[in-house]
Amino acid sequence: MRPISTAAGGMLRARLRSASRVRGGGGGEGAGRWTTPGHEEQPKGYLFNRPPPPPGESRKWEDWELPCYVTSFLTVVILGVGLNAKPDLTIETWAHQKALERLQQQELAAAGASGDGDAE
Fold it and tell me: Which superkingdom, per the lineage (predicted)?
């Protein structure tokens, strides 16, 4: 029984060791996936690795920026107007309107019954 558990333990250790080597964890042998020689240790400190323009100059827009900004703005406007103008189709609104109609019918029926009694 003991040799089987020893063999299974050895196979498990070997499999875990190879898995940790592939994922770059532990062991210290070779460069990991995220620490290859091509990656920098620290960023340069500029957004998108682009240095700011010299003082007095503005940044030149790329060709995709204007259509992207215009489309985004128009999408927000169209959605804002469209969602605010949609009809109120909730069950609460429907029930409220039906209740008001019933109250109005009851008031008319009560007014008609009292008006008929005066005419006689």
Answer: Eukaryota
- CA quadruple 64, 68, 69, 74: dihedral positive or negative? positive
DSSP per-residue codes, the chain: -HHHHHHHHHHHHHHHHHHHHHHT-SS--S--SS--TTS-SS--SSGGG-PPPPTT-PPPPPTTHHHHHHHHHHHHHHHHHHHHHS----HHHHHHHHHHHHHHHHHHHHHHHHHHHHH-
Task: Give 46's pLDDT tier (boundaries 50, 70, 90).
Answer: confident
User: Contacts by 105-110 with C-beta closer than 8 Å and gap 24+?
Assistant: none
Which residue is listed with tokens 């240095």?
Answer: 51
The CA angle 88-90-93, to the nearest 5 degrees, is: 80
**Amino acid symbol at 93:** T
Q: What is the reported pTM?
A: 0.42
6 — pLDDT class (breaks 50, 70, 90): confident
